[in-house]
Amino acid sequence: MCCFDGSNWRRITDIDDITNNSIVDINIDKKGHVWFAVTNNTVWCYDGNKWHNHSPENVSIQSSDIEILFDSNEDTWITHTSEGILHYQNGSWISNDWLNLYRSYDYTFSPDGKLYSCSQAYDSFMSSYGGFYYPGGLQYYTFDTQTKVVEQKTNLPVELSVLIIFPNPFNPSTAISYTLSKAGYTELVIYSISGQKIRTLVDNYQTPGNHSVIWNGRDDNGRAVSSGIYISQLKFGDSIVTGKMLLIK
Question: Where among 107, 125, 156 does a domain terminate?
């Protein structure tokens, strides 16, 4: 593992557990300590001088969705483990396995200590690809000092959910799916990585609910585009979300 100080790279560990292809997430707390979640179910913290092993026992942290988070008290949390969300407190890990009931794909802490998450729901309306998970909603939780949930609010109002692009990478086509909380004018446009407008897929009034659009890798003139990274941009009201996709030929 190497660190770049702004001028030079320097090696900071020879620990066999930590290699480039074994790290699933890295984050830095306010003290400047670097936390690593590793595929062999270990958690390491580097304080600038020494490495500290904070690995939970009998817990799998091999998922690529795992995130390392820090709350307003600078406690460390790890999501998407085999035991749900883990909270590192007073030298030990505390699990919230019931949070696995929500198929959440992103978490963040607010300054007032609320843990927000975006959940997924399952549907099979994309018959060409089979069932898949689409954005289901926004919720938050607050905890007491024992990491017990004392407040939970689900299905918070959001105008627009994030884009789900599947398959990605793709060839020759991919499906772009999203959820609208209410009816309104919607625009979905594909851009090149340089910002050139490639294709307008949606430019009309749409009803609330789940929507899916197929992009066949062609521009507005029907010409096949070259391999590369493309950006999908979805506008709805004052909300804008984007997603990257990779076309491989």
Answer: 156
Q: Which residues sit opposite 156 in a β-bridge? A: 138
Q: What is the largest CA-CA distance in the chain?
A: 61
The CA-atom distances, in angstroms, between 126 and each of 123, 174, 175, 203, 231 are 8, 11, 9, 21, 22
CA angle (43, 49, 54) in 5-degree steps = 20
For residue 3, the one-letter residue type is: C
pLDDT at 191: 93
Residues of the domain holding 215: 164-247
Of the two residues 46 and 22, the one the predictor is more confident about is: 46
Last residue of a domain, one of 156, 172, 189: 156
- Compare 71 and 2 and report the one with higher pLDDT: 71
Helix, strand or coil, per DSSP, at residue 20: coil
CB atoms within 10 A of CB 101: 9
Could you read off the pLDDT of 30-64 as tens digits, one per residue? 888 889 888 778 888 888 888 888 988 888 776 66
